[in-house]
Structures are given as structure tokens and as C-alpha cells.
Amino acid sequence: MRDFQHSKQKNPHRGLRNSSSVRRLALRIAFVVLLAGSYMVATMPPLRIQTVEVHASTEQGRMALERVTSDFLSARSLWIFPNRSLPLFRASRLRAAIEGTLPVQTLSIATKFKERKLAVAAAFRVPVARIQTASSTLYVDPDGQPLSMLLEPYDGRQLLEIRSARADIQTESTTRSRLSGKDLDAYHALKAYFEKTPTPVLWMVMPEDPDSITFQMTHNWQLLVARHDQRASITKRLDIFFRQRQNIANPKPLEYIDLRFGDKVVSKEK
Fold first, then answer.
1. Residue % of the chain over a pLDDT of 70
2. CB-based contacts of 110: which residues, under 8 Å, 6+ apart?
3. How far is CA 217 from CA 79, 138, 197, 220, 226, in A?
4. Range of the domain at 13
5. How many domains in the chain?
6. Residue at a domain's end among 72, 96, 124
7. Splitting the chain (270 residues) into consecutive groups of 10 residues, what average pLDDT does each group show?
8. Is the pTM above the cut of 0.70?
9. 245 phi, psi to nearest 5 deg
10. CA distance 62 to 270
């Protein structure tokens, strides 16, 4: 009799466990049904992107943009949902894929739900400088960032020439840490300043010193400037130096002009 009562006391706990198992099973079934339904909706032809329009200024740029967009749409989210599904499409994810692959300057992404169409248009960064090493060439944009590929028209004759003796110039992190947009601005200013003189700038030496930049000039002399000096200050001191130099009878060829000491101009002749 005691055993019988003891067994009856356990029955409610067993019922609770059975009820909990039923709820877990029901939740799993509901999740599977929801997942299957979402997949069916996402893959329905009327709800998929059918047409893709890609616009760029050059054929090479258009083909590169089309390739990245096509690869993105062919992939899947969460292993099963196609990126081509309009209800699940996220422009931010496509933008990240394009900007992570191509040197994009501006990018426009638009979807037209009724027409089941995706339109992508991009303009790419243009090189302003060419970094030359003994074994390779690297192009950089106005911010000093290296370009993985050239997809916009540019005039090679207008590129600033930069020389480097280091092999690691090809790495993006190295270039960004050693070359900036301000460096290129200073190069532009000096190139314009010397264009009408007998000694134009040939190239800029890739900055190794964090505080100075060296420019190689015609007739084999160098100009050294402080990296963060104001352009107006540089040209003003150069004007004063060359006016004084005109008063020297038969001046010797220059070896360098050093403008890194404030208002003081240090020069050496050969």
C-alpha cells in the first residue's frame, strides 16, 4: 500500500516532463515550418531580382562592377536564403561587398520592386600619383591611398612621380602610414611653383622621415621641406632665396636647399 501511494505521488512530475517535451517539439516544428515558408517566399520567381543594370564611366569599370554584383547575388545569406531575393535584399551588404573589392569614389544602389530590377552605378577613384620602385609601380589617389586597380580615365602625364627604395611599398597599410593627402598637396604646390623655372621638380622621394619630405630637382639637386609646413611659407622663402641668389656672380650648382628650420634657409653648393 505504501509503495502504491509513493508511485502515485510521482505521476504529476512525469506529466510535467511530458508536457515540457511536447512544447519543445511544437516549437521545433513551428521553427522548421517558419524556415521552410520563408525559404519558399524568398525563392519565388516573382520576388526575385530578375534584371541588373550596372553603370560606370568605362567598360573596364562596368565589367568589374558587374562581376562583384553578380557574385554577391549568386551567394546566399544564412546558407540558404538567396541574396537575389527582393524581400531579403539589403543594399548595405552589397555596398560593403563592392567597396571592399573596388576603389569606389561614389556608389549608388537602387531596387525597383515592381520591375524586379536592381540598378548599381559607381564612379571610381582616380590616381594622382605614381609610386615607382625598382621592381613595381603603385598608383595612389588624392588621399594617398593605394588603388588596387585603375577603372577611371586619367592623364598619365599629369601624375605626380614618387620614388621609393623600399619593397614594402605595395602594402596598403605601409603606404597610408607614410604618404598623406597633405604630402601630395605640397608636391602639387612645388611642382606648380617650379614649372616655369629651369629646374622643375622631377619626383618626390617617398617619405621615410615622419617630419620631412625630399624632392628631387632637375640638375641633380634636392629640396627638403618640413612635412607639415604651410605651402605659402615654403614658396615665400624660396622666392627670397632665389632673389638673393640672382645677385651672386657665377653661382655654383646647388646640392640642396633645406627649408626645415623655420624661417631659416640652409643651402649647400657642389
1. 77
2. 91, 118, 119
3. 58, 22, 11, 6, 17
4. 1-36
5. 3
6. 124
7. 50 58 70 57 63 93 95 73 75 93 94 88 93 84 86 87 70 58 86 87 84 91 90 90 89 93 91
8. no
9. -70, -30
10. 54
